[in-house]
């Protein structure tokens, strides 16, 4: 279970997040929506331990972030909005590289399975030769090597064709069901949110989004 | 640890050819390049002129002694020709062995046996002066010693006691400081010491320049790598990015030291160019850590490479400065104490440089830790 208590974030004098409170259960898929600049990425980065809130606290399975940063990080998979891969290495080498540095041991077969599960089959291809959609899939696959309990995705399907998008979403849904992974992700695509998510959280106070969600 | 190394090798594997090139360039470059320089090295020697007014045995001997020195290139001229060449800067300095040279030596004369012309740009003058002085001292010494022994023997036969005053006085005469070379023909200028290492260890000089360049290039992957998004993933890994980099630095050092060990064997044992292994290894660690830190600071790879090349050109310039004239030479001499290669070329381990880069590395490590803390806190 992920608990967010009274989380506030200020950049200088600018309030981005103001006393956010919510809880997410094991196996839930939650979408974050809101206008541009509402603070979705900011919240995701706080949940990913990449920055700390100005006040308030976050707990993952009862462990407060600020006290157990190391243990918490072992449980997190963060898929950044920007592609974070070794461009000159192959798909396989990227997977093997991050497996070597991760907390877990996986066989090459297991690593390959993660990729095939999300229809990424160009195992030997160099990343720089992959299409944008395939890169996104690998970007996600690497974050799954250590089987995180909390998966955070920042606009994972932006700029991807429909087929890849469906494949990625199907995979995520399966993951939450099978492994009980908590998945939080941001998107501007309302139909996608409605299809994939158990619930959506609105960041910011624009009434427009409240209306849309209730439709 | 092992896994860190494997991970790093996966990244290096992509550029294995370029790394091999830079790793072996210093040794192979030195072995190919130095014999080539030595072939054309006459051009690099300081040209001096000698005017021989007599063809006696002693005059010839002196000429040969000077001609065999390995920092000068000697040519024989008529006096007028020599002076006009000196004025046109074609000669560094000119030495005249006057008519009657041998005869005067045989009479035990030591003063003004050879005359010299030199200018304020002359650099061979003090060196040749030394050489001429010691040659003439040796020649006149033989004559003098012979006559002194004869003289003392005679005195000893006449009186029963050795007169110690007499012996001392004779010895004094023998060791009297002699002004063999007349310097009153100076065109203009003053004495200037010849470059500090007048017999440079040519192999090690070329090697150290090439390996400074190659070490700098061997670390330029850091610049592209450290700015990539992928760095973010290390937050969720067993090791931080700074640990990974530190581990890579150690790996690179081990590889470099292995290559250096071989270089040491080839140049020291096979080519007979003496240098202590401590000097070699302390230089290696210093330049490798220096390159690492420089690459951490630099943001742009091309600027980094341009800096590396300029740095090595500068090193080349100040370490082969004996050909440079006038004010530029003075300028270079004044920065000589800062020459990073000075310790190496004098075969000393550079502990000060080593300490500086190790402190730099510690500061980097602390600061890099701070980067994550800050990033977490307020970014
Ligand atoms: N490092 C920073 N310093 C100051 N202000 C920042 C910083 N990062 C983000 N902001 C501001 O905080 C607000 C929220 O940014 P954030 O990126 O979280 O929005 P978002 O909801 O992800 O927007 P988008 O839908 O465009 O991705 C924006 O107004 C942004 O300008
Ligand atoms: Mg965003």
Tell me what you see in this structure:
The complex is a heterodimer of chains A (215) and B (379). By secondary structure, chain A is α/β, with parallel strands linked by helices. Helix content of chain A is 37%, strand content 24%. In chain A, the strands form two sheets. A five-stranded parallel β-sheet of chain A has the order 6-7-8-3-9, sandwiched between helices. In chain A, 42% of the residues are buried. Chain B is 64% helix and 6% strand. In chain B, helix 3 links the parallel strand 1 and strand 2. In chain B, 26% of the residues are buried. At the A-B interface, strand 6 and helix 3 of A face helix 1 and helix 15 of B. Magnesium ion binds next to helix 1 of chain A.
Please, what is the oligomeric state?
A: heterodimer
Largest interface: A-B, 29 and 25 residues
- Run of helices and strands of chain A: EEEHEEHEHHHEHEHEH
Taken from the alpha-carbon principal axes, the silhouette of chain A is globular
Rg for CA atoms of chain A: 17 Å
| Main sheet makeup of chain B | 5 strands, mixed
Quote the distance from N terminus to C terminus of chain A.
28 Å
Strand order of the largest sheet of chain A: 6-7-8-3-9
Give the % helix of chain B.
55-70%
Helix content of chain A: 25-40%
Topology order of chain B in helix (H) and strand (E) letters: HHEHEHEHEHHEHHHHHHHH
Beta percentage of chain B is: 5-15%
Strand order of the largest sheet of chain B: 2-1-3-4-5
Contiguous low-pLDDT stretches of chain A (5 residues minimum) are: none
Number of helices of chain B: 15
Structural class by SSE content of chain B: alpha/beta
Intertermini distance of chain B: 31 Å
Largest sheet of chain A: 5 strands, parallel
Q: How many helices of chain A does DSSP assign?
A: 8
């Amino acid at each position: 279970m992920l608990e967010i208590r009274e989380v506030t974030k200020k950049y200088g004098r600018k309030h981005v997040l103001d006393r956010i409170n919510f809880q997410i259960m094991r196996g839930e898929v939650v979408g974050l929506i809101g206008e541009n600049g509402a603070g979705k990425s900011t919240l995701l980065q706080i949940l990913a331990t990449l920055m700390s809130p100005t006040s308030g606290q976050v707990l993952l399975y009862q462990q407060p972030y600020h006290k157990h940063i190391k243990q918490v990080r072992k449980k997190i998979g963060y898929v950044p909005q920007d592609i974070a891969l070794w461009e000159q290495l192959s798909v396989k080498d990227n997977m093997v590289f991050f497996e070597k540095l991760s907390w877990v041991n996986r066989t090459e077969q297991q690593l390959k399975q993660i990729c095939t599960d999300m229809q990424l089959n160009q195992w030997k291809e160099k990343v720089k030769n992959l299409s944008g959609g395939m890169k996104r899939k690998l970007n996600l696959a690497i974050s799954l090597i250590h089987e995180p309990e909390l998966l955070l995705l920042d606009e994972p399907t932006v700029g991807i064709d429909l087929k890849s998008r469906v494949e990625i979403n199907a995979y995520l849904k399966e993951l939450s069901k099978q492994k009980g992974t908590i998945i939080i992700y941001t998107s501007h695509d309302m139909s996608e949110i409605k299809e994939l998510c158990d619930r959506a959280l609105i960041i910011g106070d624009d009434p427009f989004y409240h209306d849309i969600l209730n439709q | 640890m092992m896994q860190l190394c494997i991970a790093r090798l996966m990244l290096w594997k992509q550029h294995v050819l370029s790394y091999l090139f830079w790793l072996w360039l210093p040794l192979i470059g030195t072995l190919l390049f130095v014999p080539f320089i030595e072939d054309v090295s006459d051009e690099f020697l300081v040209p001096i002129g000698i005017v021989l007014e007599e063809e006696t045995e002693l005059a010839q001997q002196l000429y040969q002694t000077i001609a065999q020195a390995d920092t000068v290139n000697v040519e024989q001229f008529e006096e007028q020709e020599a002076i006009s060449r000196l004025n046109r800067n074609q000669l560094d300095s000119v030495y005249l062995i006057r008519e009657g040279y041998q005869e005067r030596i045989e009479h035990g004369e030591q003063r003004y046996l050879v005359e010299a012309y030199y200018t304020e740009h002359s650099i061979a003058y003090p060196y040749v002066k030394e050489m001429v002085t010691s040659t003439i001292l040796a020649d006149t010494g033989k004559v003098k010693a012979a006559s002194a022994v004869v003289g003392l023997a005679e005195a000893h036969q006449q009186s029963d006691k050795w007169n110690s005053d007499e012996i001392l006085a004779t010895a004094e005469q023998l060791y009297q400081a002699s002004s063999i070379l007349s310097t009153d023909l100076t065109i203009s200028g003053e004495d200037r010491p010849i470059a500090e290492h007048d017999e440079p260890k040519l192999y090690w000089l070329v090697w150290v320049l090439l390996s400074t360049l190659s070490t700098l290039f061997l670390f330029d992957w850091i610049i592209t790598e450290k700015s990539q998004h992928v760095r973010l993933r290390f937050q969720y890994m067993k090791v931080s990015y700074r640990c990974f980099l530190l581990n890579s630095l150690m790996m690179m050092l081990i590889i470099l030291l292995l290559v250096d060990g071989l270089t040491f064997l080839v140049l020291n044992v096979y080519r007979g160019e003496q240098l202590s292994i401590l000097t070699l290894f302390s230089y290696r660690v210093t330049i490798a850590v220096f390159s690492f830190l420089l690459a951490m600071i630099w943001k742009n790879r091309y600027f980094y490479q341009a800096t590396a090349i300029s740095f090595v050109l500068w090193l080349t310039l100040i370490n082969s400065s004996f050909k440079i004239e006038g004010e530029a030479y003075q300028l270079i001499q004044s920065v000589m104490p800062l020459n990073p290669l000075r310790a190496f070329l004098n075969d000393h381990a550079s502990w000060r440089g080593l300490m500086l880069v190790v402190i730099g590395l510690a500061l980097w490590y602390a600061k890099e830790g701070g980067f994550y803390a800050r990033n977490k806190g307020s970014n």
